[in-house]
Amino acid sequence: MIRKVSIFDMPKAWRVDLFWSRVGTYSLNECWPYLGCIDKHGYGHVSIRTPFGILWRAHRAAFYLATGVYPQGFLLHRCDNRLCCNPHHLWLGTNDDNMADMVSKGRQVKGGRAKNASLTDKQAEEIRRLWRFHCRHPWDIQTTQAALARRFQTGTGTICCVVNGRSYCE
């Protein structure tokens, strides 16, 4: 839901000119990096006491100041620069838009690089190699999916996904 608010709804203690003095403004098609505080995720952040909260990410504050629209939900960067405060680079979206944007720009974590991965990419490659051997020699009980799961200390469901190309894709 989009909520229209006026810039005058913001308290006088927070000065708009102070915020923009901390943003490097260039041409409309260039990024405008936030030059103030940066959080652990790489986004600029500002303290603003408003009805919506105290700590804001800088790009959300810039969008709000430029459009008068409080961005509820996702505010996405066309430029993929987390510090960018150029309102022309920002757009309102949904979680689905955010995921599609991430995939289209190749930023999703895959395979063994994922935080919760139970196998490395090298192990997945070894599992596929052993499974191809099992397909040629089905009597070898050392290369069944259950045996591979025990050997690599993971579940048979994970092994099934690896050998069928649903995870740890080559």
End-to-end distance:
41 Å
Mean pLDDT: 80
Uncertain runs are none
Over the alpha carbons, how many angstroms does the gyration radius reach? Answer: 24 Å
CATH-level-2 architecture of the largest domain: Alpha-Beta Complex
Main sheet overview = 2 strands, antiparallel
Count up the helices.
6
Task: Walk me through the topology.
Layout lengths: L2 E2 L11 H6 L23 E6 L2 E5 H10 L1 E2 L3 E4 L12 E4 L1 H10 L16 H16 L8 H7 L4 H8 L7
Antiparallel strand pairs: 1-4, 2-3, 5-6
Helix pairs in contact: 5-6
Task: Provide a quick synopsis of the model.
The protein is an alpha+beta fold.
Describe the structure.
It is a single chain. The protein has 170 residues and is of the alpha+beta class. The chain is built from 6 helices and 6 strands. It has helices at 16-21, 58-67, 95-104, 121-136, 145-151, 156-163; strands at residues 3-4, 45-50, 53-57, 69-70, 74-77, 90-93.
Keywords:
two-stranded antiparallel sheet, two-stranded antiparallel ribbon, 170 residues, elongated, Homing Intron 3 (I-Ppo) Encoded Endonuclease, Chain A, alpha+beta
